[in-house]
Write a structure and sequence with these properties.
Elements lengths: L10 E9 L9 E4 L2 H10 L20 E6 L8 E5 L3 E6 L2 H17 L3 E8 L5 E7 L7 H12 L5 E5 L1 E2 L2 E2 L8 H4 L3 E3 L8 E3 L4 H13 L3 E5 L7 H6 L29 H16 L4 E3 L8 H4 L2 H10 L4 H18 L3 E5 L16 E4 L4 H8 L4 E3 L27 H6 L8 H4 L2 E8 L7 H8 L2 H10 L5 H17 L11
Parallel strand pairs: 2-3, 3-5, 7-8, 7-18, 8-13, 14-15, 15-16, 16-17, 17-18
Antiparallel strand pairs: 1-6, 4-5, 4-6, 9-10, 11-12
Helix pairs in contact: 1-2, 3-5, 7-10
The protein binds acetamide and zinc ion.
Length: 497
């Protein structure tokens, strides 16, 4: 009898007997502490007319129970389960651990198999187990994002990084800058005859709903606003913030563009201030991601204002102006009580405007940025595009597979080692890892699901467990796939390596 839990718990001691769980209808009674987390589990199993369906509990209404107990001795995300013949006891130090424990049970309930009596102790290896969705290149709906967040939480993923702005669309309402959404959230698809305008933005209510839905599932929502590059949507709305004054457009092409925010124009910080105030109001996370990737200096080089800024700051070359901007943004965020995260390009700073040590580096161009960052004392999140973290890449090397740029296998998502080649003190700065979906050609939630599952399942086990074993994972996946089916998630079913 398999005992299929993903991610693999730290310790499982199985007994020979079974919880006679599926002999009754309805949900188990959940008693004791952590009633907030219990109510989410009940919601997850509420019968529905539409998919996702709940497991077919059957039989009599015997009073089998889950008893939840607070146990201060357990670490924040840790939990312990004692599965007996008559009842289950769940212990956790706080709601986060309790939620993880309940999701482990949810997996077992979804399988509809007999559950062995057992003692389980569990806690994560890494604290940052993230997933990023690009909602700019494709504007995903609120129901899809909620469905995704719920599914991520089944696997103990605990960060949803929400990429809210890019060249192809601005998705965040900022009261002081209404044109960001009035103009910047829509683009004209010029390749299509009739040129329809597509896009949209999340309202404050949408954002609150997603943050609160995620928070009930113990997932932190980290917003990303890209400065000073990937700014076409900003410039289309406020052309005065660019070096040339335009004309600009919300891009319907994909790539890296020359037009970025003008480093010589103080007004870009007025915009940043308003954006950060909005983020501080809507997102409780201590982190704000400021992007910083793929910034071209073509326009800065020929811009009188940018050249004046270069002279005023005493910097030697145009790329150094990005670090001047980044340092300013970082301190603006710090004043609002937020810590900045940046893509690894922000490490390419100047000695004059050194990046403050508290800035978190998200390493995406392979692992080198992360390795360099820990040497300089920065906290790091590993998300190397070379090692299984880019889920918009094809699942295998087959022309019929959807996806862009490259290939990234389930096995790679399982194998990425965020602390490879690091000393103990360097490794201590690694917060964990993250998978990303860039959505240039992932133009539907259903396609996103296919790209995300099961690679994120492999990644979740990779980031969580102390007991990695790919052969065991691959075997468990055959059972776990049925759970993903029950949750109505499209999944890739081809080879894993
Ligand atoms: C990135 O993939 N440009 C962060
Ligand atoms: Zn300029």
């Amino acid at each position: 009898m398999p005992f299929t839990i993903i991610p693999e718990p730290a310790l499982i001691r199985k007994r020979d007997d079974f919880l006679e769980f599926f002999e009754y209808t309805g949900l188990p009674v959940i008693e004791g502490d952590f009633q907030k987390e219990a109510s989410v589990l009940k919601e997850q199993f509420a019968p529905r007319a539409e998919p996702p369906h709940s497991p077919a509990f059957s039989g009599t209404d015997a009073a089998r129970k889950i008893v939840c107990k607070k146990d201060e001795a357990l670490k924040v995300e840790a939990y312990a389960l004692a599965i007996g013949r008559e009842a289950i006891e769940l212990r956790a130090g706080c709601g986060r651990g309790a939620y993880h424990g309940l999701q482990t049970l949810r997996q077992l309930f979804l399988s509809g198999e007999k559950i062995p009596c057992a003692h389980i102790e569990d806690e994560p290896r890494f604290g940052w187990r993230g997933f990023m969705l690009d909602a700019s290149r494709y504007f995903y709906t609120v129901p899809f994002i909620k469905k995704l967040i719920d599914a991520l939480s089944l696997h103990h993923i605990n960060v949803f990084h929400w990429h809210l702005t890019d060249d192809q669309g601005w998705r965040l309402p900022v009261p002081e800058y209404p044109l960001l959404t009035d103009i910047g959230s829509k683009r004209v698809e010029r390749r299509l005859s009739g040129a329809p305008s597509i896009g949209g933005f999340y309202t404050e209510d949408d954002i609150r709903e997603i943050v609160s839905y995620a928070s009930a599932r113990h997932i932190e929502v980290v917003p990303e606003i890209d400065f000073p590059g990937h700014a076409s949507a900003i410039l289309a709305a406020y052309p005065g913030l660019g070096c040339t004054g335009g004309p600009y457009r919300v891009e319907d092409r994909f790539g890296i563009f020359d037009d970025v925010l003008c480093a010589g124009n103080d007004a870009i910080f007025g915009l940043a201030d308003a954006v950060f105030n909005t983020l501080a109001r809507l997102f409780p996370s201590p982190y704000v991601h400021i992007g910083g990737d793929e910034v071209r200096v073509t326009r800065w080089s020929r811009c009188p204002k940018c050249n004046k800024r270069l002279a005023d700051t005493g910097l030697k070359n145009m790329p150094e102006l990005q670090s001047w901007i980044t340092v300013k943004l970082v301190s603006m965020l710090a004043e609002k009580g937020k810590t900045a995260i940046g893509w690894d390009e922000v490490l390419e700073d100047s000695p004059r405007y050194m990046l403050p040590k508290e800035v978190v580096i998200m390493s995406w161009r392979g692992a080198d940025g992360g390795k360099a960052a820990v040497k300089r004392g920065h906290p790091v999140i590993m998300s190397p595009n070379t090692e299984g973290c880019y889920l918009d890449y094809r699942n295998c090397d087959d022309v019929e597979e959807p996806g862009q740029w490259s290939v990234s296998t389930v096995y790679q998502s399982y194998s990425m080692n965020p602390v490879a080649g690091m000393s103990e003190s360097e490794a201590a700065l690694v917060m964990g890892g993250q998978c990303n979906v860039w959505s240039e050609i992932i133009y539907a939630g259903r396609i996103a699901e296919y790209m995300i599952f099961p690679r994120i399942v492999a990644f979740a086990e990779n980031m969580w467990t102390f007991r990695k074993d790919f052969a065991n994972f691959a075997q468990k996946l055959t059972v776990h796939r049925q759970r993903l089916d029950m949750l109505d998630l499209v999944q890739y079913r081809g080879r894993l390596k």
